[in-house]
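Appendix C: a fully annotated inverse folding record. The material below is reproduced so that readers can follow the format used throughout the book. The structure is listed first as tokens, followed by the designed sequence.
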């Protein structure tokens, strides 16, 4: 049995086990990830985030070897390209463990490419989430069809139309009519998507709540729940919030707000659509430090 130092953190209650492993000394395996994320036998989390230099990891070879890389694993032991809530927590973790000042923004490596994390003060961080695709159309292309797939979920009859959104990892967004429909979903069972996405998909269900003007700027407001590929239903999903904001903005038509406040079960995040990119902002909390005995 070996001992492993860890930190527990969350972003709007999307929670992670964080490992500081600058030189890549930890042999991180699917079995170890599943153990750490087990909410009864292990620590419990939606995923594991390892802070490692890019040069110590095959996935980091496209970056300068000194770049901090966010090695993100889902709770079922599979790898994921990117995690928006995780990136905020990763920024807070690097500030504490590596002595980095993120107020001016720090560039990190992920399997979805480079991302910039910026400390906003008051425990909040923003993440530049990169470019996005709606359906098969890129930014600047003619608007894609409003829907390109269907989703079946327990508690939702009949199957509903959905829009595929790529924000560095794959999503399908479903529009619902009322908050009651959203609350009635049973996401203990994974929704099924048709056509079946080859790499799997995060599936978001969203209902719009109108909007408001904040400091003279229009904000849309939307509430969502999510079933994450490799983790099940989570209390929040940062990339999913971006996918929802992009889909709802498309469905709302010309003149829709560029800023969306997205309510998730674990709190609220804000998504800004700026040209062909999105920015996600919200809290990051480091909850506890400890040592776990690994069988």
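Designed amino acids, in order:
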């Amino acid at each position: 049995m070996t001992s492993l130092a860890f930190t527990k953190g969350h972003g709007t209650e999307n929670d992670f086990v964080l490992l500081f492993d600058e030189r890549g000394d930890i042999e991180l395996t699917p079995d170890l990830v599943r153990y750490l994320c087990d909410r009864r036998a292990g620590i419990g989390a939606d995923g594991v985030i390892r802070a490692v230099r890019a040069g110590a990891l095959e996935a980091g070879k496209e970056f300068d070897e000194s770049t901090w890389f966010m090695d993100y694993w889902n709770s079922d032991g599979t790898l994921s390209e990117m995690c928006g809530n995780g990136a905020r927590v990763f920024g807070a973790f690097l500030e504490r463990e590596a002595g980095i000042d993120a107020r001016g923004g720090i560039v990190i490596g992920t399997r979805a490419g480079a991302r910039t994390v910026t400390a906003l003060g008051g425990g909040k961080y923003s993440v530049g989430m990169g470019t996005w695709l709606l359906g098969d159309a890129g930014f600047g292309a003619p608007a894609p069809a409003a829907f390109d797939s269907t989703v079946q979920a327990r508690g939702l009859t009949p199957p509903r139309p959905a829009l595929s959104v790529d924000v560095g990892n794959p999503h399908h967004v479903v529009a619902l009519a009322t908050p009651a429909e959203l609350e009635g979903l049973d996401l203990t069972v994974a929704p099924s998507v048709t056509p079946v996405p080859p790499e799997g998909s995060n599936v978001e269900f969203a209902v719009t709540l109108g909007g408001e003007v904040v400091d003279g700027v229009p904000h849309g407001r939307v509430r969502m729940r999510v079933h994450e590929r490799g983790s099940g239903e989570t209390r929040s999903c940062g990339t999913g919030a971006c996918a929802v904001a992009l889909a709802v903005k498309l469905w709302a038509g010309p003149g829709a707000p560029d800023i969306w406040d997205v309510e998730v079960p674990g709190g609220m995040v804000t998504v800004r659509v700026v040209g062909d990119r999105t920015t996600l902002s919200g809290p990051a909390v480091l909850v506890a430090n400890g040592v776990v005995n690994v069988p």
